[in-house]
Amino acid sequence: MQAVILAAGLGTRLRPYTTNFPKPLLSVAGRELLYRHLRLLKEAGVQEFIIVINPRHERYFQRFLQKHPEFSCSLVLNPHPERGNGYSFYLAQQKVKGPFVLVMGDHVYEPSFVSQAVSLKGLIVDPEGLFIDHNEATKALCEGGYVQRLGKDLSHYTGFDTGFFVLSPEVFTVAETLIARQKEVSLSEIMVQARIPCSFLPGLFWMDVDTPEDLKKATVYLIKQSVKGRGDGLVSRWLNRRVSTWISARVISWLTPNQATLLTTFLGLLAALLLFRSPWMAALLYQFSSALDGIDGEIARASLRTSAFGGWLDSVLDRLVDFSFLLVLGLLFSPQGLAEFAVYLWAIFGSIMVSYTSERYRGAFGTDLQADIPALQWVPGKRDERVFLSMVFVILGHVKALYLLLALLTNLRVFLTLVLVWRAKRP
Question: With 0-12 CB in 10 A as exposed, 13-18 as middle and 19+ as buried, what is 345?
Answer without folding.
Answer: middle
